[in-house]
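All the exercises in this workshop are built on plain-text protein records. Instead of coordinates, the fold is spelled out as a row of discrete tokens. Once this layout is familiar, the rest of the handout is easier to follow. The record below serves as our worked example for the rest of this section.
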Amino acid sequence: MKSIIIIVLSFLSFFQYSYSQETNKLDDKGQRHGLWKGTYTESKRPRYEGTFDHGKETGVFKFFDDTKELKVIATRDFTAKDGSAYTTFFDQKGNKVSEGKEVNKLNEGEWKYYHLESKEIMTLENYSKGKLNGIRKVFYRSGKIAEEATYTNGIKNGQYKKYSEKGAVLEDAIYKNGEFDGAVTYNDDAGKMIKGQFKNGKKSGIWKYYENGKLVKEENPNKVKKEKFKIDSKNKGARKLPQNAPSNK
């Protein structure tokens, strides 16, 4: 019986040794070649596995969470053979979190983001060399549009719209270099609306306030309001300074 156990243990040791010799190998130029497996530093659990062809990733790489279950939390698919990878992220239950193309580990083209534990798309983004470019859309879980914004090199530029789930435009604004710049309209979808202007991120000109389509107020946010001096009832010879006025102390 002991001899059988010794033979089995010897076989397992030999198998493990042989298997280790077939993974994490380098070619004659010192580049990774063949099947590679990485581990987490502290737990020593598997972190990733994938195949290299003389330093270049090929096929599909899998990335695992740092738990005993070894859940796949991401995959990177290199089958396009153009230097790009189609990357997909997953939650602990296997639901997609996001997916899209990467070039040199930078987001490129369209990326999709999903609602929590759902197949419904939450956000659509477009990238160029890792930066947002073009229209970014956000959706309600129902699939109806919630937001639309335009980006240039990662900065919000152009028209921005925010919608209620019923389709009403709650906000309609213009951005320039990441700041409000131009006409803006706010609507609470309950009869109240505000119209105004921004310049270089600051309110400008006359702002108008409406209720049920009727103009109820106008104001210039940049116009300084004048405050009248008030007579102190206890000292009629003294005058109070306007509120927030600097003292001479």
In short: The first strand starts at residue 25 and ends at 26.
